[in-house]
Task: structure prediction
Amino acid sequence: MASAHGAARLITDALATLRRATVTPGTVIVRADSAYFTHQVVAAIRRGGASFSVTARMNPAVAKAIATIDEQAWTTIRYPQAIWDEDQQVWISDAEIAEVRFTAFTSRRTSERITARLIVRCVKRLNNKATTQGELVPGYRYHAVFTDSTFGLVQAEATHRDHAVIESVFADLKHGPLAHVPSGVFTANAACLALAGIAFNLTRAAARLTSTTLGKARTATVRRTLITVAGRAANQAHHWRHGVSVHSASTPTAQDRRMHVQLLYFDECPNWQVADARLREALETLGRPIEVEKVLVNTPEQAEHWRFHGSPSVLIDGEDPFARPGTPVGLSCRLYRTPQGVGGSPTVDQLIEVLSRT
Result:
């Protein structure tokens, strides 16, 4: 089944719910990847009164529009930290961006065609076979975004890239209520999905109402802070026992109290959120109710102080178990070798292994 199947209806319902729940929702932008670059999706967004920002597939019409951009129209941007390029499977730290007016869906009737901005990011294509001799004519790769956002060029491009935050939502759900789906029974899966959505939305709403910090925390943190609260219970002899938790939890051992686990990160590398979820899952699997201290690293001085080998980094009692000899220190996004290949975070099994050594 195509990713965009049913997306238009989902967007219509979501925007209608937002309007009912919020009198003045402000600027609403629906961001999506190229699987949703369809007339039905974009039209549904516009009917709902929102702006759209959708990755455009590199079809002949898009390529032709990009070719019309004047060489002087490109603006060089340098990202504060590297970002992952899915097509080339490499980290990039700078690029050029430009925009051009573009009319999409020209195969449809004139009244159904949509004209808006085509924002293009141009990245030099790396030559993996090059050794010492430089390229005579370097190649470039283009990443296009179709949007009617009113933001400036640089902000509009950066805003679209931020749509990757949805991956942290997926990680939350997959490591929470959806951990046992699919069950093999369609109706059971449907019920589980509906309940997971309700529970997730209520939990996030409670977190945002509580504080700005908690509003950005993972669901496991919200549950531990707001839901797994201390209580009182009385036995039949009317003696009070204090500190009984709503959820049962193992008593921390001396070994647990000694272990100090830290997650070093910076916001521009979203993989730290995946690492956070996996780290918590590993600790839960080992039965160690340890609080993970998050350390935000923003400057080269902080990176040097923490011996920061990139985001995300896990420290166990001050030591980085994944650091190799000669690994550089600095602000960068970190890659890990996993059984599934190179990834942006250690796997749960890898984390369990290093945590078990302590």
